Amino acid sequence: MNVPFFLARRIRHAPIASFSATVTKVGIASIAIGLGVMIIAFAVLFGFKQTIAQKVFLFGAHLQVSKFSLNRSYEGSPLPLHTKVYDQAAGIPGVRHIQAVAMKAGILKAPDELAGVVLKGVGTDYDWSMLQESLVAGRVPDFSKDTAYSTGVLLSKKIADQLRLETGSHVIMYFLGGETNAPRPRKLTVSGIYETGLEEFDNTVLMGDIRMIQRLNNWGADTVASYEIFVKDFDKLDDTYRQVMNVITPDMRISKVTDNYRALFDWMLMIDTNTAVFLVLILFVASFNMVSVLLVLMMERTPMIGLLKAFGGTNGLLRRMFLYVGLNMVVWGLVLGNVIGIGLCWLQDTFRIIPLDPKNYYMSYVPIVWNWPFILVLNIGTVLVIAAVLWLPTFVINRIQPIKALVFKA
User: Fold this and answer.
1) From CA 26, how far away is CA 6, in angstroms rounded?
2) Cα–Cα distance list, 117 to 149, 201, 234, 345 (Å)
3) What is the average pLDDT score of the chain?
4) 15-29, 59-73, 80-94, 144-158: which range is least confident on average?
5) End-to-end CA distance of the chain
6) Are 68 and 252 a contacting pair, CB within 8 Å?
7) DSSP secondary structure letters along 344-404
C-alpha cells in the first residue's frame, strides 16, 4: 500500500466545515484563477497579434519582389510578368502563393469631395481569401471577364464615408502622367467596401483591375510592377526570403514585410516580451499561494506529523504525503482553471461580448486565437513549476520534533 498517498487522501477528505477544507479550497481557487487568467490573456494577446498581422498582409504580403531602381514612387518600375521567380514559385521551398500587382496614384472626385488615393491593380491570380474577412459591404470585383479592363473597385469604408459613396456608386478617378502629363479620368464603380482599421491602408488604398494600370502606363499584358509572395510558415520567413533571393535576378530587389512595417512588428515583438513577464508573474503568484497553503496545512497538522514520526514515519514519507496533498489541489485547480479560461474565451469568440474602438485597436472586438498546443504547454508547465516549488515547504517537516509536536497537541 502507498502509505503517503493513503494519508494524503485522509487529509483531503477532511470535514467540509474544518479549517483544512477551507484552506484547500483557497489553494484550488488560486490555481484555477491563475490558470484561467493566463489562458484568457494569451488567447487575447495571440488574437491581437494575428489579427493585426493578417491586416498588414492584406496589402503588404510577406515578401515583395520589384525592379531594382532609384524610383521610390507608388508606381514602381515595369517588371516582366513571366520570370523565373514567378513561373517557378511553386517549386521554391516555403512559398505558398505568388501574385502580380501594380500601383498608381490618383485623385478620386465625388460631386462635393476629393480624396488622394492609390489604386492597387490586381489580376486573376490575386488571393482574396484574407480580404473577405474585412469586407463590410458588397463583393470583391470580378476581373476574370474577357474585356479591356474592369471598372469595378474595392475601397475602404473611410474613403466611402468621406466621399459619401456606397456599393454601386460611380466615381471619377483622375490619373496624372503620360506624354502630355494631362489628367486622365476614368469612371469607376464601387463593387465593395472594406475596413481593416489600419489607417495607413484605409486612408489611401483602392483595389482595382491591373489591366487598367497597364493601359494607363502603356504597358503590355505581360508587364507588372511587383510580385507579392506569401509564405507557408511565417515563423520561417527569413528562410524563405533566402530561398527567393537565390532565384531572383540581379536587377530585382526583395523586401520583407517585417522591414516595410517595422514599427508594427517591433510593437508585436514587445508584446512577446510582455507575455513572458506576465507568465512569470502569474506562476510566481500561484506558486507563492500554494506554498502558503501547504505551510498552513502543515502547521495545522503538526500534532499528526509528530504522532506519525513517533510511530516511525520518516521525513521522506511525510514530505511525499504533503506533496500529494498539494498536487491534488493543483489538479483540481487545473480542471477548474481550464473550464473558466476556455469557457470565457469561447463566449467571447462566439458572441463577441467585449467590443473595441477600431480607431484605437485596429479591430472592432476582442479577438481570440485557439492555440491548443500552447494551452497544453501552459497546463504542463504549471504542474511542473508548482510541483517543484511544493518541495520547499515540506522540508519544514525535518525540523518538527515528535515530543514538541505532541506537547503542542496537548
Assistant:
1) 22
2) 20, 10, 30, 39
3) 86
4) 15-29
5) 31
6) yes
7) HHHHHHHH--SB--HHHHSSSB------HHHHHHHHHHHHHHHHHHHHHHHGGGGG--HHH
Averaged pLDDT for residues 71-87: 84
401: nearest Cα among 269, 317, 306? 306
- The model's confidence at residue 154, banded by pLDDT at 50, 70 and 90, is very high
Task: Decide if 257 contacts 53 (C-beta within 8 A).
Answer: no
Strands, DSSP E only, in 144-281? 152-156, 170-175, 184-194, 205-209, 223-224, 226-231, 252-256
For the CA atoms of 306, 309, 313, 315, what is the dihedral angle to 10 degrees?
Answer: 80
Q: How confident is the model at residue 410 (pLDDT cuts 50, 70, 90)?
A: very low
Cell of 257: 514585410
Residues contacting 267, CB < 8 A, separation 6+: none
Q: Count of alpha carbons within 13 Å of 43, Cβ hemisphere only?
A: 24
Q: What is the pLDDT of residues 368-384, one digit of tens each?
A: 999 999 999 999 999 98
Given a contact cutoff of 8 angstroms between Cβ atoms, the answer to whether 38 and 378 are in contact is yes
Q: Which triple of cell numbers denotes residue 344?
A: 470565457
CA distance 305 to 165: 80
DSSP SS3 for 17: coil
Q: Within 10 Å of residue 172's Cβ, how many Cβ atoms?
A: 15
Task: For residues 357 and 368, give the distance between their C-alpha atoms in angstroms, rounded to a whole number.
Answer: 16
| 250-272 residue pLDDT tens | 999 999 999 988 888 888 888 88
Instruction: Find cell 489607417 and name the residue.
Output: 199
* Residue 401, Cβ density class (10 Å: 0-12 exposed, 13-18 middle, ≥19 buried): exposed
- How many residues are present in the chain? 410
Instruction: Quote the CA–CA distance of 105 and 373 in Å, as a whole number.
Output: 45
Instruction: Compute the Cα dihedral for 51, 56, 61, 64 and give only its sign.
Output: negative
Task: Give the whole-angstrom CA distance, residue 76 versus residue 314.
Answer: 80
Nearest one of 60, 359, 32, 95 to 233, comparing CA atoms: 95
CA 110 to chain centre: 38
Question: Residue 159 above 90 pLDDT?
Answer: yes
